[in-house]
Amino acid sequence: MASFAFSTIKPYSYDNSKNIDRSYRLKQESSLFGKTISIEKKIFSREVCDENPGLSISNVATKPAVIVPSKQDAENNRKLVAWTSVRQERWQGELHVQGKIPLWLNGTYLRNGPGLWHIGDYNFRHLFDGYATLVRLHFENGRLVMGHRQIESEAYKASKKHNKLCYREFSEAPKPDNFLAYIGDLANLFSGASLTDNANTGVVRLGDGRVVCLTETIKGSTVVDPNTLDTLGRFQFSDNLVVRMDPGTNERKVMGRVKCRGGPSPGWVHSFPVTEHYVVVPEMPLRYCAQNLLKAEPTPLYKFQWHPESKAYMHVMCKASGKIVASVEVPLFVTFHFINAHLERDEDGRVTAIIADCCEHNADTTILQKLTLQNLRSYSGQDVLPDARVGRFRIPMDGSPYGSLEAALNPNEHGKGLDMCSINPAFLGKKYRYAYACGAQRPCNFPNTLTKIDLTEKKAKNWLDEGSIPSEPFFVPRPGATEEDDGVVISMITDKNGEGYAVLLDGTTFEEIARAKFPYGLPYGLHGCWVPKT
Ligand SMILES: CC(=O)/C=C/C=C(C)/C=C/C1=C(C)CCCC1(C)C
Ligand SMILES: CC(/C=C/C=O)=C\C=C\C=O
Ligand SMILES: [Fe+2]
What we know:
Belongs to the carotenoid oxygenase family. By secondary structure, this protein is mainly beta. Strands 5, 31, 32, 33, 34 and 35 form a 6-stranded antiparallel β-sheet that branches. The chain has a 5-stranded antiparallel β-sheet with strand order 4-10-9-6-36, with no helix packed on it. A 4-stranded antiparallel β-sheet has the order 3-2-1-17, with no helix packed on it. The site of the ligand CC(=O)/C=C/C=C(C)/C=C/C1=C(C)CCCC1(C)C has 15 residues, from loops.
């Protein structure tokens, strides 16, 4: 049986609503050929245009590889900048703001993502392979300074130095020169030496103020300076295990373990939700696959395999005792991102169930293949984005063996596309009403709207800039707010002309209140965090 070992970094005190407990981390350990493999999960982010000269710190162009647009894109003159390597290593400058940035919005939004998908003439194949590009939006007294910069991971530096891939990325692996090198590679895979430290998935602020970029390998955690975007170094955990971490320390403490119920290989966990007292651990039938881990060429599901016969489960761990207090079989599901979880109580206040919401892809793994760069770059006008919904799990806490999974609202409300979600952080683990995410206006090949979902009224309000690709809408609450949706939503957009801008939407009305054009369009980014002004 495979097992999960759990680790959480708990930098914030839970009850302080300003302190967002988003930086939980989970380490999956599994046994392959008698070796323990540890895979750590994050939680749960040139030319300067004339009117906007900015401050170009460095013009080290990244020599983007040649990207040929599809016939349809060429006809529509649609640019593919969201899926094209960032044009230069770094830039910083003040942006011209149209509209009004609220004066209370003082701090820095950081967004991380895989923004460089080639080394010399060699092009990566999957969205998740790219070297990390960190983008910074610094808001101060109604003004906005933008900056972006590549994270100086060992993997990135080595690829630049040797002009070839040197570490295993999500789907790319260095090609061994001969059989001996192949054997060496296998050894390096087991020791973890060949795994990437390219922290391209998310960024979190710890309770002590340190800012850490993350990916799904244990060595990926990288400390950065949120002001300069300097890479400060590897975040070295001082323990040799997995678990919960107090603010100001680098040491995690074991909380507990979850035994996978669906056979020898653990399910892929990209994120998981928590409540005040519980950690909810999903066990997807999309499982790690030993054979695929060893392959140099990508397989259809990369390092994973779909095992519907192994079933799907949700486990609930008590944070205090580490004990599993519920473990139920649920309908098959596919998700990257959990939105939130909260307790369900009966009239007497007794806990009856945990409700856990996620962006659920109708138990269909094809979304993983849809995220190849070739697919993203070859939109033909056909509606090819697989359907997704707010999947709501009900995990009974009375010992019943089965949980349920249903759409929390009619998916047509958000165009049957859904991913890259955020909520008001003060409602993490609590009963909540609103979620923000990317939705779809069809036809499309990727989520192309921003959507505000009202889980009580079961309605969504959608924002669209036709032909553009918006990144994860990030909610920042107004200090002193009493309403859940009192705040702003930040997103970065790459539009159909290949230009880019930051947009601010009012959290309540979901109307645009400000936008600020970037000097050039930026590649698509994933998850972000908020660093309040100190
Ligand atoms: C960007 C994103 O969402 C996911 C990134 C995932 C990565 C970089 C996964 C890397 C891995 C390896 C390099 C080998 C071992 C398996 C796995 C964790 C998939
Ligand atoms: C971009 C994405 C997952 C990112 C992982 O961090 C999923 C997009 C899904 C489309 O519906
Ligand atoms: Fe993610």
